[in-house]
Amino acid sequence: FLYTTAPPAACAAAALEAVRVRQEAPVWWERLWRNVACWREGLAAMGCEIVPSTGPIVPIRVGPVEETMALADALLKNGVYAPGIRPPPVPAGSSRVRTSVTALHAEEDLDLALQAFRAVCEERWNTSTTSSGSLRPRSSPSRGRPPGHGELVEP
User: Who contacts 61 (Cβ-Cβ below 8 Å, separation ≥6)?
Assistant: First the structure.
């Protein structure tokens, strides 16, 4: 027995509008990919292991769950929302933080986020890569969660 349903009309309308914008306003598409390239280059220059992806979601492999969540917490404390992704959605030992780039990010936004990554890495993480290429902490994270962890934070 196979059961299927159609997407809601609002979802279909949103998809059609996205296609229309893509066709009629290519400047947004171009800006998106320019921003993605800038973001990837900045992270790579810091020694981050970028998980291969083909879209504007740019995952950064950290490795162990504890280290990943400590990085996500420290980034949030520094104004960057990069949620930690841990098993089961990803294999054990390959936890990562997930960043997303949009066409609406200004170059200054990306620069500020890269500065926050750099500050966190300098404070808590060794930005040089290990043999696996992942980030490793200088010492085991012992700090508690920042205030508001797990809550929505206004930009």
Answer: 49, 50, 51, 94, 95, 96, 133, 134, 135
Pair of tokens at residue 33: 């990919």
Angle between helices 65-77 and 107-124 (to 10 degrees): 130
Q: How does pLDDT run across 12-69, given as a tens digit for each residue? A: 999 999 999 889 999 999 999 999 999 999 999 988 999 999 999 999 999 999 999 9
- Cβ partners under 8 Å of residue 75, min gap 6: 81, 82, 97, 116, 117, 120
92's CB contacts (< 8 A; 6+ apart) are: none
Q: Helices (H), strands (E): how many in the chain?
A: 4, 6
Nearest-Å Rg of the Cα atoms of the chain is: 18
Is pTM beyond 0.85? Reply is: no
